[in-house]
Amino acid sequence: MKSLLTCCSLLALFIAGCASDPTRSSDSISLFNGQDLSQWRNPSPGWTVAESVSLNPENPHLFVIHPGTGVFVNGPTGEERNLMAKLEHGDAAIHVEFNVSSNSNSGVYVQGRYEVQILDSWGVPNDHLKYGDCGGIYQRWNNGKGYDGHAPRLNASRRPGEWQSFDIIFRAPRFDDSGKKTENGRFIKVWQNGKLIHENAEVTGPTRSPGFEHEAALGPIMLQGDHGPVAFRNLRIKPLHLE
Hints:
Jelly Rolls, 8-stranded antiparallel sheet, 16 strands
């Protein structure tokens, strides 16, 4: 009981505003072992494990990929199929570290459905931020029109070629015994590089180009791989049970 109370107290402190990584605990699950992509479903051959990446000095939209282990990248041109995890999650704390090249674009789809945008948004003024900027919760799409979407409350982006992080507390949608949705999913809090960029952001359904058009209690992390070069490392999920 004491251990459970301690865990709950630490989680409450985190949700209240502490921007440290909540997934650094023994019950967290790593989605990348640094060596291979065995935690992901049928990755296309272009997804490459490497030691590091750096901006190509002749074309900063591309990476120079340095051989070795420790990170993974969507190939030399950034035009690989989306990558979907084997693990399916509900309520969760999620930690993702990413590196995006100049003018590149990717995204982290929580449950394969709700995208937190990755973009080279370095230098965008706070009053110009939109849902499509880095850290934004992307808009939904229907009949050729976009709607909803949540811009980040401030620009926390670093320069292209620098490592960045998202820390996400996500509450999954709720369903009754018949499968009818009773509550929408919600990003309780999202931090980018330690700065709070969302709080209680509701998602009424899957955002644009999801892995699944329907909603469910569980789903896998999906990483967008076909919109330009992006590298990842230190992906972890800590299962939660939120009220």
